[in-house]
Amino acid sequence: MTTMTSSVLRRSLFAVVTVLIGGASLVACTGDDSPEPRPSASASADASAPPGGTTDLAKAAEQVTQQYLAGPDSSPAPAAIATVKGTVRADAKDVPGTLDLLAVRAGPRSTEVRWRLSSATTTPGLSTNYYNNIENRLPDTDAVALVAKQANLRSLPGIWSVGSLNDQDCTCAYVPRGLGPAGVEMSNLYPALPANVTEVQLLVPGFPALTAPVTRN
Amino acid sequence: MDEMTWPALRSRLACRIAASGAAVLLGVPALAGSVAAATTAPAESPAAAGGSVGDSAGVLPVLGRTTITGSREAGGVRATALVHGVRRIPGGTVLYYSVGVPAGSEKASWVSLSRLSSARRYDLVGSTILGGQFLVDMAGKTVYSTLVDADRKALASPTSAWTGSEPGRFYVLYQLLPELPAELTTIDVQLGNADIVHDVPIADGLLEPAVEQKEPLPLGEGWPKIDPAAAAASLEPAKSVHDLKVVTSDVAKSVVKRETKKSVSVDLAADVLFAVDSDKLTPAAKAKIQAAATEINNRSAGGAIQVVGHTDSTGTTAHNDDLSKRRAQAVQAALQPLLQVPGATLKVEGRGEREPVADNKTPAGRQENRRVSVIFTPKEGK
Asked: Between A17, A37, A45, which is nearest B8 by CB?
């Protein structure tokens, strides 16, 4: 009983401390563009909070699981921030398709683009060489370009070599093995965007350029 | 990163730490979502789950999230992956992550995910399917892949930690990767089919409490126990560090830069520099060659600078070899007086049609292949 009480008290105190820290952080998080350093909430937490025990860990895991895995709809497909109709190339034919841009996340060292391809009907066997460059010999999407007109900049995903020039990979998704109305979400990673860039265009073969705003971390 | 940027970034990370820690601990998903919307990105942002760097406040660090589509097929299971830590240890880096498929999914859907994790690079992961995740430092032009042991087996969660897992739960996994540069504070994590968890903060030390991982380890039962000396004892860690080539250009693609840490190639579009089949520079060439000179003056470490001509595949090999060399010589003659790099020497070469960068079957591809490349070694960090 004593142990339980102590545990409950400890968790309650921990929760209060966390809420206070969280609240302070929310206040501090306004005006993100300010270059001024702010007090570090983590430093306060490090000094005052007790170590997490397995019970706390299990409880936190339960909550995270409930949030994302409770059922088929617990982690729904994200809404598009921009959409355009075009075609996807499958078995050497052009099939009506939709390109959704889900997010453009610009960080200080890279830019992540999350996108989704779908087709009205089930479409097997996308033509992989339609979406990649000759420099890369994998079924990837390294021909999908990111354009920032404000900086007169066009970027491609990064390419890296495993050992020989004929064995390369990229910081980009491989093309879907089959499409349908549900679509397939993918990420491509590009170099960092200059600070003045607020919108970009994604160039996917078979689709008109798709313009969307940039989110800064 | 400059002095002003890092404190701001650190402060933003701190925002995520405390706010998300509160949300997770108190079981208030809506708070986590609202924090994400206010600080970073839409609710679906992988970084939206927020998290903590060594935070004792957040018992369960969740530094970012993404989804992975099973088998890369529409209708495939949509798994959620969480990143819990990118942690420095002696001689290496530990990636802690977990993956789960929604309750009600087919148990067999795990198989479609395991194919994704390993199929990208069977050659790197050996017999361990769970070694197929990567860390990407785009600005540092480096990709890090799994470390391997003396048997060339990936230093990662055992395959037995994956199979037989139940839908509706997260299972924790780890992978050991090479040591990251000391100055690096964030990195991108590439999971599954290059599903990215962006801008993950890097911290020190192993996560606790640690438990032996011989079978699937549900999230919340502890973190996989890792031998802290394993990374330092890995086989040929340098082979797990890969140069990343970054390709950028102006929108018109008249000046294309292909960069690695060791080499910069500034490719000037031949259609801007020359008339068809000519080696006489056009009036428009001056500005493009000046752009190449500025790049060299700002970034070159000196030494040999190559000027290499390329053509498309139209015409005979002999003609293309000759034309590409004459064009390279014309660029060299215009470039030389613009350079201010002590000791730099220009070497000219014509490689004809032998090194295409685009498809010669299309007009756009042939246009890209017609170019003169100016190649130099960059100063460290440039």
From this structure: A37
Structural tokens at position B175: 């992978």
Residue B258: what residue type?
Answer: R
Would you call B156 helix, strand, or coil by DSSP? Answer: strand
Give the ipTM: 0.83
Residues A194/A151, Cβ–Cβ less than 8 Å: yes
* Least Cα separation, residue A194 to chain B (angstroms): 13
Q: Which two tokens stand for residue A173?
A: 């998704």
Q: Do B29 and A63 touch (CB under 8 A)?
A: yes
Task: Dig out the tokens for A114 from the structure.
Answer: 């999350």
In this structure, are strands B142-144 and B241-249 parallel, antiparallel, or unpaired? antiparallel
Where does residue A46 rank: exposed (0-12), middle (13-18), buried (19+ CB within 10 A)?
A: middle
Specify the pLDDT at position B273: 97
Determine how many CB atoms are found less than 10 A away from the CB of residue B287.
11
Quote the CA–CA distance of A90 and A173 in Å, as a whole number: 17
Residue with tokens 């299990």, as numbered in its chain: A58
Which pLDDT score, from 0 to 100, does residue A53 have? 64
pLDDT for B92: 97
Indicate the helix (H) or strand (E) that contains A28: helix A2-28
Q: Which H helix or E strand runs over B314?
A: none
**Most A-contacting residue of B2, B3, B15, B187 (CB-CB within 10 A), to test interface:** B15
High-pLDDT (> 90) share of chain A, %? 52
pTM of the model: 0.81
Percent of chain B topping pLDDT 70: 80
Looking at residue B300, what DSSP letter applies? Answer: B
**Contact status, residue A145 vs residue A136, Cβ threshold 8 Å:** no
With tokens 């790049």, the residue in question is: B295
* Ranges of chain B whose pLDDT falls below 70: 1-58, 114-129, 164
CA dihedral A88, A89, A91, A93 (to 10 degrees): 100
- The backbone torsions φ and ψ at residue A111, rounded to the nearest 5 degrees and listed phi first, read -130, 125
| B146 secondary structure, DSSP code | -
A74 pLDDT band (50/70/90 cuts)?
confident
pLDDT digits (tens, 9 = 90+) for A129-167: 888 886 666 778 889 999 999 999 999 999 998 766 567
* Single-letter amino acid, residue B109: S
Contact check, Cβ <8 Å, B22/A22: yes
**3-state DSSP helix/strand/coil % of chain B, to nearest 5:** 30, 30, 40
Residue B75 is nearest to which of A52, A134, A180, comparing CB atoms? A180
Are B285 and B327 contacting, i.e. CB atoms less than 8 angstroms apart?
A: no
- Does residue B143 belong to the interface with chain A, where contact is any CB pair within 8 Å? yes
pLDDT computed for residue B50 by the predictor: 42
A120 inside 8 A of chain B by CB: no
CA–CA separation, B138 and B179 (whole Å): 16
Judged by CB atoms closer than 8 Å, whether chains meet at B100 and A69 is answered as yes
Which of residues B38 and A119 earns the better pLDDT score?
Answer: A119
Q: What is the mean pLDDT of chain A?
A: 77
